[in-house]
C-alpha cells in the first residue's frame, strides 16, 4: 500500500478549511501506487484525491506538472486538475510534505486489457502527444538514458546478482548497446513516461482519465510510445506477448499522432530502452525498499523478459512490419 505518511481526519479537515470544497465526510488511504502517499477524500461537496509527494518527486518539478495538466485539460484531454485554495494556491504542505488536492476522476484501471481498451489507450496517448506539440515548459528526463548506467551501479553487482544470476552483466551490456545507438536528433516533446495500465482510468472500453504524471518530462515521443507498448502488450510477468493488443495500441496511436520516419526507425531501440528503464528502477526498489514500507515491490524480471523479447529482430519485425 502506498501510504508513507499517515494522516488523521482532524489534520485533513484543517487542511481542507483553506479550500472552498465543503467538509470532510470520508478519508481513505489508497492501496495502489508506489511513489507518493495518496488519499481518497469525500466532502459534503465532492470527491478528491490528496497526494503527498514522497520518494522520487522533487517539489521543484511540481510547477511543470501543474502547467502540463492545465495545458492538457484545456486541450480536451482527460486528465485531473490541481485544485486551488481560496487564495489561488495549488501547492500546500501537510505533515511536513508538499501536497496537492487533485480532481477525482471516475474509472478503474484494467489488469487484463482487451483489444478495444488497448486501442483507446493508444488513441489517448496520441491525442496527448498532439496536444503537447505547442507546450513550451521543459523538464529533463531524470530517469532517461543518461542515468541508466549509474542507476545500475547504485544497485551494485551483488544486489543485481541476488535478483537474478547474470543480471549485472546483462544490464551493463544493454547500457553499452543503447548508449552507442540511442538517437540524438529526433523531435522531442513533453511525454507521460509511465503510461502503465494502472495510470489509465477506464469505464468499459473508454478512457476516462490519464493520471500519475509525476515522471512526465521532455523526451522523444517514440520513447513514450515504447513505454506504453511495453506496459500494455504483455502478460504482467512479461512471459507472453499479445500481438492483438500491440496492433490495437499502435493503430489507436497512429490515428491521432503522425509519427515521423526517423522516430519509427528508432522504435526498436526505444522499446529496449523502456524495458531497461523499468528493469532498473524495479531492481533499485527491490533492493532499497525498507521492510516496513506499506508498499508492494514490483517484479524486476517482468521487464527483463520484455527486454529479451524486444531484443529479437523477428519479434520486432512482427510488431512493426
Ligand atoms: N485523479 C484521480 N482520480 C481518481 N483516482 C485517482 C486519481 N489519482 C490517483 N488516483 C488513484 O490513486 C492510485 C495511486 O495514484 P498514483 O498517482 O498512480 O500513485 P503513485 O504516484 O504513488 O504511483 C491510482 O491507482 C488511482 O486508483
Ligand atoms: N510503473 C512503474 C512504477 C511506477 O509506479 P506507478 O504506480 O507510479 O505507475 C513500474 O511498473 O515499474
TrEMBL record:
The keyword Ribosomal protein does not apply. InterPro entries: Aminoglycoside_PTrfase, Homoserine_kinase_II, Kinase-like_dom_sf, Pseudomonas-type_ThrB. Its EC number is 2.7.1.39. It is an enzyme of class 2 (transferase). Residues 27-253 form the Aminoglycoside phosphotransferase domain. The keyword Nucleotide-binding applies. It catalyses: L-homoserine + ATP = O-phospho-L-homoserine + ADP + H(+). One of its GO terms (molecular function) is ATP binding. GO terms for biological process: threonine biosynthetic process. Pathway: Amino-acid biosynthesis; L-threonine biosynthesis; L-threonine from L-aspartate: step 4/5. Keywords: Amino-acid biosynthesis, ATP-binding, Kinase, Nucleotide-binding, Threonine biosynthesis, Transferase. Belongs to the pseudomonas-type ThrB family. This is Homoserine kinase. The lineage of its organism: Bacteria, Pseudomonadati, Pseudomonadota, Alphaproteobacteria, Sphingomonadales.
Amino acid at each position: 500500500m502506498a501510504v508513507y505518511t499517515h494522516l488523521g481526519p482532524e489534520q485533513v479537515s484543517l487542511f481542507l478549511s483553506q479550500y472552498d470544497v465543503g467538509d470532510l465526510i470520508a478519508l481513505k488511504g489508497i492501496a495502489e501506487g508506489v511513489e507518493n502517499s495518496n488519499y481518497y477524500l469525500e466532502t459534503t461537496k465532492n470527491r478528491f484525491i490528496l497526494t503527498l509527494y514522497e520518494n522520487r518527486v522533487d517539489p521543484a518539478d511540481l510547477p511543470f506538472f501543474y502547467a502540463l495538466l492545465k495545458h492538457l485539460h484545456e486541450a480536451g484531454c482527460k486528465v485531473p486538475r490541481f485544485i486551488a485554495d481560496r487564495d489561488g494556491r495549488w501547492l500546500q504542505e501537510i505533515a511536513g510534505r508538499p501536497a496537492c488536492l487533485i480532481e477525482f476522476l471516475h474509472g478503474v484501471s484494467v489488469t487484463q486489457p482487451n483489444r478495444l481498451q488497448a486501442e483507446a489507450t493508444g488513441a489517448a496517448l496520441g491525442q496527448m502527444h498532439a496536444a503537447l506539440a505547442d507546450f513550451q515548459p521543459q523538464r529533463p528526463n531524470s530517469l532517461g538514458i543518461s542515468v541508466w548506467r549509474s542507476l545500475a551501479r547504485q544497485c551494485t553487482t551483488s544486489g543485481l546478482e541476488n535478483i537474478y544470476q547474470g543480471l549485472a552483466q546483462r544490464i551493463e551490456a544493454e547500457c553499452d548497446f543503447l548508449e552507442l545507438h540511442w538517437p540524438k536528433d529526433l523531435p522531442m516533446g513533453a511525454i507521460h513516461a509511465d503510461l502503465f495500465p494502472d495510470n489509465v482510468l477506464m469505464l468499459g472500453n473508454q478512457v476516462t482519465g490519464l493520471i500519475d504524471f509525476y515522471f512526465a518530462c521532455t523526451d522523444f515521443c517514440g520513447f513514450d510510445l515504447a513505454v506504453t507498448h511495453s506496459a500494455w502488450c504483455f502478460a504482467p510477468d512479461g512471459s507472453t506477448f499479445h500481438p492483438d493488443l500491440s496492433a490495437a495500441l499502435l493503430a489507436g496511436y497512429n490515428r491521432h499522432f503522425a509519427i515521423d520516419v526517423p522516430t519509427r526507425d528508432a522504435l526498436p531501440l526505444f522499446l529496449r530502452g523502456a524495458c531497461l528503464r523499468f528493469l532498473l528502477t524495479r531492481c533499485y526498489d527491490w533492493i532499497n525498499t525498507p521492510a516496513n514500507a506499506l508498499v508492494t515491490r514490483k517484479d524486476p524480471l517482468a521487464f527483463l523478459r520484455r527486454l529479451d523479447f524486444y531484443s529479437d529482430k523477428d519479434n520486432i519485425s512482427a510488431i512493426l512490419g
